[in-house]
Every structure is written in C-alpha cells, then in structure tokens.
Amino acid sequence: MSDFLDQKVRTDWSTIEAYRDKMANPFDVQYVDGIAQQTIGSLDCVPFVAAYAEYLSDGLQVPNDGLDAGLLRKRYAALLWKYGEAKAQKSYATNLKDPR
Asked: What is the C-alpha separation between 62 and 54, in angstroms, rounded?
C-alpha cells in the first residue's frame, strides 16, 4: 500500500481567517417549519435537491407551498437539452475517434 495519505500536507484551518469562527461550529444550521417536501413514498429526490441547491445558491427563500416535482423534471430536462444543443453547435477539433 502506498504512503500517499502520510505524504499529504494537512491544512491548518485555524490559521485561515475566513475559517477561524467556524472551528467550534463548522455548520450554520437553520430549522424551518412548513418547508416544501417531496411526497411520502417518492424515492426520486433529484429534482428536490436540484431545486433546493438553486434556491439557496441564488439566496432565495425556498417556497413553503410545495415544489412540483413534475414541473422541476421538465425544467431541468429542458435546460439539459438546451445545453446539449449549444454544445453540439460548437465547432471543435479533437484527436479522439468516435467510439460508435
């Protein structure tokens, strides 16, 4: 087995100003009552995780009246389609051969 982990340089987070106040309490947790949740029995949490990440990264309040999972799936599918179309229209050269 290699000694990779033994050779690793550790970061002393207490010396970095941005993290000094986080050493005792590394996570800021907020408890919110009545927040939108996925329906009971649904195992597909992907649209909810994506929606929460989008709301939080944009600094928005997550709506309490629920999230429409079907609408979220359609929205993200459309965004992926648009991304794929834009990527397909870009001209680029590569040395890799098409595996098909």
From this structure: 9
pLDDT tens digits, one per residue of 66-93: 777 788 888 888 989 999 998 888 876 6
Burial 35-61 (b: 16+ CB within 10 A, else e): ebeeeeeeeeeebbeebeeeeeeeeee
Domain span including residue 49: 12-89
Task: Please tell me the total count of domains within the chain.
Answer: 1
Helix (H, G, I), strand (E, B) or coil at 7: helix
Q: The pTM is what?
A: 0.43
Rounded to whole angstroms, how far apart are CA atoms 89 and 86?
5
| 16 vs 23: CA distance, rounded Å | 10
Residue 30 inside a domain? The answer is: yes
Residue 24 domain-assigned (yes or no) = yes
Structure tokens at 85: 């179309």
